[in-house]
Specification:
21% strand; Aldehyde_DH_dom; Aldehyde Dehydrogenase, Chain A, domain 2; NAD; 7-stranded mixed beta sheet; binds nicotinamide-adenine-dinucleotide; 2 domains; alpha/beta; 23 strands; globular; 2-hydroxymuconic semialdehyde dehydrogenase
């Protein structure tokens, strides 16, 4: 029997298949793998796994589309099409929320209020950016006195390979697809094997709003020796944009080196929050509760190291403990649920291994440290307790390695210099938040902490026009606003002798 194209992510029958989206059509593979719901372990459906053949078909379709009708569409019309995609997402809002909920297990409230709307917002933002960006021009002196004019134009880079992770799948995938298409490229997307839903659904929206076949392609599968590696190794891919773990980025960079393909990398973090004694503690605790526990701690920008000036250390520990213990794990449809599961049992094993290491390293477990006792089917979900430690040495694994779970270590400091030194004592450099009422100090510390993104008295407050990316092991390049154009277009110079 033909499997349905339209995903009924809520059906739970196991009949649903996520197929590739190649050249405007759903495409099957002989091999499939299972996608299970993280909150109760039930089967969402089977997912097609692309081999080299399907990856090649997707890249070939994307290359062909570069010279088809897509190439003749003006910037204005492309911008309108990006807005149409955003409207198409909004029209099928509930389908996207269902798909994202089935894939990630996070509460409906979070998907509906933040992560799915942001997918549509990404398309709107880059619809505006491509229409308003200027290019440079120089008047150049020449020996004959007549001069020359140098001006630059932007051209699409070509076929972009988009490799995305599972933690905010729709938001992070569209953050790359939107600028890539707005700039006139074509894409082959490899979503995480954990989250096949929304990337597949977006293919239907692309067809509904008239994006030409081959412009947006999706292939499903794993990383090494599977769809991810086949895509990044494919010589028909002109550039690769990747969000995920630093270790994976290293492997992708090696693949990209063949043929000197450009890369844009958004990778891991071990982010700090710096809380000074003069901070508004109500706002600080509210911010820390989000930055440590949102999405069950599976946010690249999330805080895993909280540094607190000693006079307010005990108060911050006590209040964050109370906030953690007030979180309600549960079914994503339950209105009382504000704390979802980890993405998979495998990831839960990893997070629990850090809980064990922290205990073995002598941490004081302020709260959590294990698995919550949940009733019925939820007992099969991949939930863990929100967890706070104090008292760990600066070189212990839970303080230095990215855990990507709902946990943090809280450590006191005695001076601004010490806070900066501790914040910078990491191989990562993605984000930080600084909590203080002293504006001069806020600016001083912001400039001294070596990260790509700093929030002062807030966290995850995003303006999509700003540069986004990390220093050190947290990434290469910046995306956002005009900065995305640096990666998704090729800037060419034209010199005219007058
Ligand atoms: P991951 O690196 O395991 O996987 C990401 C993607 O890469 C998946 O689609 C996977 O299938 C693919 N992949 C894996 N190995 C590959 C290979 N050898 N070749 C090609 N593709 C391969 O990451 P994850 O576990 O899905 O996501 C969590 C990580 O992502 C965390 O480290 C987190 O900090 C990071 N992240 C960073 C940002 C950011 O903006 N900096 C945002 C979100 C997540």
């Amino acid at each position: 029997m033909e499997k349905p194209d339209v995903i009924d992510a809520a059906s739970g029958t196991g009949e649903v298949a996520f197929r590739h989206f190649i050249d405007g059509r759903a495409v099957s593979s002989a091999r499939t793998f299972e996608k299970r719901r993280p909150f109760d372990g039930s089967l969402v459906g089977l997912v097609a796994e692309a081999g080299r053949e399907e990856v090649d078909a997707a890249v070939t379709a994307a290359r062909r589309a570069l010279t088809g009708p897509w190439a003749g569409i003006s910037v204005e019309d492309r911008s309108d099409l990006m807005r149409a995609v955003a409207d198409g997402i909004t029209r099928r809002f509930d389908d996207f929320v269902e798909a994202e909920m089935a894939d990630t297990g996070q509460p409906r409230s979070m998907m509906g209020h933040a992560f799915v709307p942001r997918g549509a917002a990404n398309f709107k933002a880059f619809a505006d950016v491509v229409k308003s960006v200027a290019t440079e021009a120089f008047q150049t002196a020449t020996p004959d006195g007549a001069g020359a004019i140098n001006y630059s134009i932007r051209k699409p880079k070509g076929v972009i390979g988009v490799i995305s992770p599972w933690n905010a799948p729709f938001l992070l995938m569209t953050w790359k697809v939107a600028p890539a298409l707005a700039c006139g490229n074509t894409v082959v997307v490899k979503p995480s094997e954990e989250t096949p839903g929304t990337a597949t659904l977006l293919g239907e929206v692309m067809n509904e709003v008239g994006i030409p076949a081959g412009v947006y392609n999706v292939i499903h599968g794993f990383g090494p020796d599977s769809a991810g590696a086949f895509l990044t190794e494919h010589p028909g891919v002109d550039a690769i944009t990747f969000t995920g773990e630093t270790r994976t980025g290293t492997a992708i960079m090696q693949a990209a080196a063949r043929g000197l393909r450009d890369v844009s990398f958004e990778m891991g973090g071990k982010n700090s929050a710096l809380v000074f004694a003069d901070a508004d503690l109500d706002k600080t605790i509210e911010g820390l509760t989000r930055s440590v526990f949102l999405n069950c701690g599976q946010v690249c920008l999330g805080t895993e190291r909280v540094l607190v000036e000693r006079p307010v250390f005990e108060e911050v520990v006590a209040r964050l403990k109370a906030a953690a213990e007030a979180l309600r794990p549960g079914h994503p449809e339950d209105k009382a649920t504000n704390f979802g599961p980890l993405i998979s049992q495998e990831h839960r094993d990893k997070v629990l291994s850090y809980y064990a290491k922290a205990a073995a390293d002598g941490a004081t477990v302020v709260t959590g440290g294990g698995v919550p006792d949940l009733p019925g089917d939820l007992a099969r979900g991949s939930f863990v307790q929100p967890t706070i430690w104090t008292g760990l040495a600066d070189d212990s694994a839970a303080v230095t390695e990215e855990i990507f779970g709902p946990c943090c270590h809280i450590r006191p400091f005695d001076s601004e210099d010490e806070a900066i030194r501790l914040a910078n004592a990491t191989e990562y450099g993605l984000a930080t938040s600084i909590w203080t009422r002293d504006l001069s100090r806020a600016h001083r510390v912001a400039a001294a902490v070596d990260v790509g993104i700093t929030w002062i008295n807030s966290w995850f407050l995003r303006d999509l026009r700003t540069p986004f990316g990390g220093t050190k092991q947290s990434g290469i390049g910046r995306e956002g606003g005009v900065h995305s154009l640096e990666f998704y277009t090729e800037l060419r110079n034209i010199c005219v002798k007058l």
